[in-house]
Amino acid sequence: xxxxxxxxxxxxxxxxxxxxxxxxxxxFNPEVDVQVLVVNDGSTDRTPDVSFLEGADYxxxxxxxxxxxxxxxxxxxxxYRLGADVAVxxxxxxxxxxxxxxxxxxxxxTGSADYVLASRFAGxxxxxxxxxxxxxxxxxxxxxxxxxxxITDGQTGLRAFSRAALQRLDIIHDYNYAQxxxxxxxRQGFRMAEVPIPYKTRTTGTSFIRFxxxxxxxxxxxxxxxxxxPKRGEHDKVLVxxxxxxxxxxFH
Length: 252
Description:
Number of strands: 7
Number of helices: 9
Low-confidence stretches: 234-252
Strand content: 15-25%
Strand order of the largest sheet: 3-2-1-4-6-5-7
Shape: globular
Helix content: 25-40%
Order of helices and strands: EHEHEHEHEHEHHEHH
Mean pLDDT: 85
Structural class: alpha/beta
Largest sheet: 7 strands, mixed
């Protein structure tokens, strides 16, 4: 049986994290064991308590807020340590459809991709304000230019990873992860795919994103990531070992 761990980074999301946990499909395939890991990034509300009450298998907490990038990095590393064959990360604000996780992980489970972006812009969007839409388009276009490949949603908060991708992923800054994650994995040679999803804006809580702080922190991180030499070739060695351990057969 394969282990799928759903990683949910959360900061003061007591009003929505339970809904996300409840919507995670636990039995969409009898050969996949689904577990939920919540990463509490210094919440001052009842986020960790609600997470346990609503069925999270694991909750790890930081005593202080470190940033979304740090929470995602820790959560995905912990998923790898716990033995995840596949991992999914999804925001805790209930904007993304947790019930679409089976579709998002399908390319990884079938062996056709190592890294999957759940694309809002290839699906159906409800309620996204114009300035957020333009910001998403701008940063996605920047990633397309840097990687020289088509991407429809480089900012999505719902993504899937193979075990090999989890092992090699390196998020270089704590504030956010969205752009540097894709640059890091694709430049290492990991296979990326996109899956369309429906999307609706959050109805509870508030987003941490503010335009100028976001720009001032994310753009330098992109420059730093692009300045690093990609670890080409390592992915192939890891993938060969992983396929050997799983008898070389893609999951169906």
